[in-house]
Amino acid sequence: MQIHDDAFEYDEDGQPQGPSKSQIKRDKLALQALAERMASMPRSELERLNLSEATWVALDETPRIKDLRARKRHWKRIANLLERENMDAVHALVDGAEERERAATAHHHALERWRERLIDEGDGAVTEFIAHCPEVDRQQLRALVRAAQRDTERGKPDAPRKLFRFLREALDGSQALS
């Protein structure tokens, strides 16, 4: 019994004839998703690619198209144009942007965990944070933690937000998040 790859259709001799209709459709849908992703990226990032003039025109038209059906046709149009582009460079750019987004999200979540720990645990967490970031203004950190604890009990968001901003400034560029 032969096991065949789902991406190819086979003739009666068992020889592959090329991609199946299903595989072609999956590839087109992936290109449409890539087109949507690219349209949401800043132009300054996309300019690193050597895109054709027609692709640039299509990408520039995207914000004007409001109707959902027209937008779907637009993604198909961009996907057709992308088939003619250097896809290795496009994929590298989009993958790099997604990786930066994941890193930024992880950084944000780590800051939120620190803020929650500082509010919940108090001095123990403050001491640990100072060990991770020794250049931090200890007095200001303690004052912000106390204010955030008070405001959290009262249901006010102001001091916890200030604490978050302070933590972000203290740890920006630092790999000491845990």
Q: Main β-sheet, in a few words?
A: 2 strands, antiparallel
Q: What is the number of beta strands? A: 2
| Count of domains | 2
What CATH architecture label of the largest domain applies? Orthogonal Bundle
Shape: elongated
**Which range best describes the helical content: under 10%, 10-25%, 25-40%, 40-55%, 55-70% or over 70%?**
55-70%
What structural class should be given to the helix and strand makeup?
A: mainly alpha
**What spatial order of strands do you see in the largest sheet?**
1-2
| Average pLDDT rating | 84
Oligomerization category of the chains in this entry: single chain
Which segments are poorly predicted (pLDDT under 50) over 5 or more consecutive residues? 1-5
CATH fold descriptor of the largest domain: Diphtheria Toxin Repressor, domain 2
Top CATH class of the largest domain:
Mainly Alpha
- Number of contiguous helices: 8
CATH superfamily of the largest domain: PSPTO4464-like domains
How far is the N terminus from the C terminus?
52 Å
| Rg for CA atoms | 25 Å
* Share of β-strand residues: under 5%
What are the secondary-structure elements, in order, as H or E? EEHHHHHHHH
Description:
- This protein has about 180 residues and is mainly alpha-helical.
- The chain has two domains: about 20-90, PSPTO4464-like domains (Diphtheria Toxin Repressor, domain 2, Orthogonal Bundle), CATH 1.10.60; about 100-170, PSPTO4464-like domains (Diphtheria Toxin Repressor, domain 2, Orthogonal Bundle).
- It has eight helices and two strands.
- A two-stranded antiparallel sheet has the order 1-2.
- Strand 1 (about 10) and strand 2 form a beta hairpin.
- The protein is elongated, with a radius of gyration of 25 Å.
